[in-house]
Amino acid sequence: MATAGLFVTIALLGYNRGVIVTFSERVHQLKQHFSWHYTVALSGFAMLLALGQLFIGQQHFDNKEVLLSQTKQAWAATEPQVLQTKTLAVKVGQRTIALIIRYHHEETVAIWQNAVSDALRRGTTLFGPYPYKQLTLTEVPSTLENTRSIPGQIRLTETEGWMADMRHPNQLDYLFYVATREVLKQWTNPQFAPGSGLVENSLVEYLALQAVKEHFGADKFRERLAQRSKHYEQQRRLAAAFEPTLAQSSGLSYVERDRGALMFSSIGEVWGDKPLSLSIGQFFRSAEAGQIAHAGKPVSLTSAAFVQHLANALPDSLHFLTAYLTERPVFDASIDNIARTGDGIIVKLNSSKWVDNGFGTLTPQLPADAMPLVVLDGSGREIYRQLVWPSAQNKSLWLPELPNARVVVLDPLGAWPDMFRHNNRRIL
Hints:
This protein is an alpha+beta fold and about 425 residues long.
């Protein structure tokens, strides 16, 4: 209003009162009427007006924190009226857990029900009884909150799967992934030590992707790992900074989630997903037992503690796998040649290995790592699998005669960080 008043005043001063003059003459008359006193006063008024507008804008209109706070207050007041509620009873062993789903998008509620129920059973198997009486899953606007798991509640943004297209069921694996990840945090979140990104994010990331593999198959699991690999490489290039190891990472999502998913999948491929998953569960169970032994005093789990736990659990021949958490290995594992003989298949393997110092500088290291080698038939179905130890000596490996064999693949999941992945697949 003040600005409008200023312009109206200037317009009235310049109003033509019946004497026809040119624009330049009118400007000259205005200059004669305005002495320096008026000029100073007008300039001062304009400055005060500008400062006032700036202050008001910072306090109310342009201050993002104020706007976000006001929006959150408005959402908190309207949330009970906007969201619908569905209450279910989930049977987990001998126990029944109340599952409350508060939603706006109704189409995916049935999927969430199945995914959360499955995650509760998975968590109970791995970590022990669910620690709360009920679990409330609430859909929240993505503009107001980030997805988070707090005791007895999961606040899940609408973009995390609530609006999934039900016409494409092969894409619904993301809902199982998100549900498993957030439900498992109901057990793990209270136990990790601050700054331990591996314990906070990497372990549940691996376990959540295992749920995808179990419900949607190895091909979908491989697809999701390929996405993690691509995202990791993109973020690594964009970061252009020192990259910590998994054991060192604190709050660096592309390391803890993307690289973490790849490294733990590599460990699972060699040791086995079942023993690895059970070992992760035992790690958290031991913390709970330690808490009981220390009269209820919380036990904070660190990344270093998990590395030691894994080293104790692994067979002696597989101790090299702990280095995937404490170093940044890079490989070039390849199938150099392949041929059929009268009684089998001869495969020549070659491997090189480097260790990244965190800045992108690679130091050569003798490879001593096991990887899976699989044989596929003409339809892409796996018909043979063997754990192999590629080395720099280009050694030959004998495989049994497989009449339906068509393709031989080294590291079929693509989980190992490989510089030249195109040479690990050969057609017979």
